[in-house]
């Protein structure tokens, strides 16, 4: 893990983010004291396939029964917020 000063990190942020995106961790110091760590974001969940999304929507449709509102009324209601 490389250590870099805050001023240099500020001036070279784009390049540092490119390095972090490739998996590198970088410690940012302020007056020689570690203040932050730039680290790549861990992928928290896999992307769903098109088929999985469609199946999920069909399951949701089975569980949710529409009331007396039409689709247009529901859309307009949702736009109020």
What can you see in these coordinates?
Helix content is 47%, strand content 19%. The protein is built from 4 helices and 3 strands; from the N terminus they run E-H-H-E-E-H-H. It has helices spanning 6-11, 13-21, 50-63, 71-79, and strands at residues 2-5, 26-30, 33-38. A hairpin with a 2-residue loop joins strand 2 (26-30) and strand 3. It is elongated and about 65 Å long.
Short overview:
Helix content is 47%, strand content 19%. By secondary structure, the chain is of the alpha+beta class.
List key phrases describing it.
81 residues, alpha+beta, 3-stranded mixed sheet, 4 helices, elongated
**Total count of strands:** 3
Largest sheet: 3 strands, mixed
Mean pLDDT: 86
**What sequence of helices (H) and strands (E) makes up the elements?**
EHHEEHH
Distance between the termini: 46 Å
Give the amount of beta strand, in percent. Answer: 15-25%
Gross morphology is elongated
In terms of per-residue confidence, which ranges show pLDDT below 50 for 5 or more consecutive residues? Answer: none
Task: Calculate Rg over CA atoms.
Answer: 24 Å
* Global structural class: alpha+beta
The tally of helices reads 4
The largest beta-sheet arranges its strands as: 1-2-3
- Assign a percent range to the helix content: 40-55%
């Amino acid at each position: 893990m490389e250590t870099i000063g805050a001023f240099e990190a500020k001036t070279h942020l784009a390049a540092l983010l490119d390095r972090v995106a490739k998996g590198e961790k970088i410690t940012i110091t302020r007056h020689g004291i570690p203040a932050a760590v730039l680290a790549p974001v861990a992928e928290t969940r896999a992307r769903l396939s098109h088929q999985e999304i469609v199946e999920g929507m069909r399951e949701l449709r089975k569980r949710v029964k529409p009331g007396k509102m039409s689709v247009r009324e529901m859309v307009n209601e949702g736009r109020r917020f």
